[in-house]
Each structure stands twice: as structure tokens, then as C-alpha cells.
Write a structure and sequence with these properties.
145 residues; alpha/beta; four-stranded mixed beta sheet
Length: 145
């Protein structure tokens, strides 16, 4: 699918609102990155690089999560930083990816991302609850590059 067509079907405001709601209950950070153009590399490797380029590994509690989507290549990945990954392991990420895949196949792109954000938010809130000292360390907007 062409990235422009994908972006035309994505409800940006709904996704950003889901991020804000999820982050309101946790010190964790969630970001969505949409890759424009082609992607020839493994989406997991690329998402890990983007995670570092976006400086998501610098959050105070190491509990940031990146949802990476490359619509033109029909690929995506979800990456969690060290502290959150230690709490949930590979099985959680695989469950998130599997759920997103079903919705993507039915072209319910926004629903896929909102559902993933909600599930990730619940996990983050359970292990990293919000405190008065927590600040929003990363922007909530969808990144498109």
C-alpha cells in the first residue's frame, strides 16, 4: 500500500488521544513512527535503530515503547526499552504484533494502533504507575518520515 493511502486512512487524532490516555496512567512513553517510502531491511532491526535515533532509550525509567509501521512494505514492529521488556518478555510483544496484523489485514489501521497502544498502556501502568514526579518525556504526536 502506498504510504499516502495508508496515512489517509489513519485517524491521527484518535491515535494521539490513545497515547495520551495510556500515558496518563504510567510513567512510560509510547510513540508511533510511520516509515515513508520503501523498507528493505528487517522491520525489527529498523525499528530498534529508530528507537535509538528518537532517543527513546533516554527515558528516566527505560520504559518507552515504539510502534513502527512501514505501510509500503507491509511491515511493522513493536519495540520496548530494557525495563519494560524485562517485565513482559517476547511473548507480550508477539501478542501485540499478532493482534495488529489481524487488523492491518482488514485495513483497520487506526484500530490496530489504538488497540496496541491500549494494551501497552495497561502493561506500562501495571509495572510503572504514574506518580506526581512523572513528566511527559517524549512528544505524543505520530512521527512520519
Amino acid at each position: 500500500m502506498r504510504t499516502r493511502d495508508f496515512l489517509g486512512k489513519v485517524e491521527h487524532d484518535r491515535i494521539v488521544q490513545a497515547i495520551r490516555e495510556a500515558e496518563s496512567k504510567t510513567s512510560g512513553e509510547i510513540r508511533v513512527f510511520i516509515q515513508r517510502g520503501k523498507l528493505n531491511a528487517d522491520p525489527l532491526v529498523t525499528s530498534q535503530k529508530k528507537f535509538h535515533q528518537l532517543r527513546m532509550h533516554t527515558t528516566r525509567e527505560r520504559n518507552a515503547v515504539l510502534i513502527f509501521v512501514a505501510p509500503r512494505a507491509h511491515k511493522f514492529a513493536v519495540v520496548g526499552d530494557k525495563a519494560i521488556h524485562e517485565k513482559c518478555g517476547d511473548e507480550f510483544w508477539q501478542r501485540i504484533v499478532d493482534g495488529m496484523r489481524v487488523h492491518f489485514q482488514n485495513e483497520k489501521f487506526s484500530h490496530a494502533m489504538v488497540e496496541a497502544i491500549n494494551e501497552i498502556g495497561k502493561l506500562l501502568a501495571a509495572h510503572f504507575p504514574k506518580t506526581v514526579a512523572n513528566a511527559n518525556e517524549l512528544p505524543d504526536q505520530i512521527i512520519e518520515q
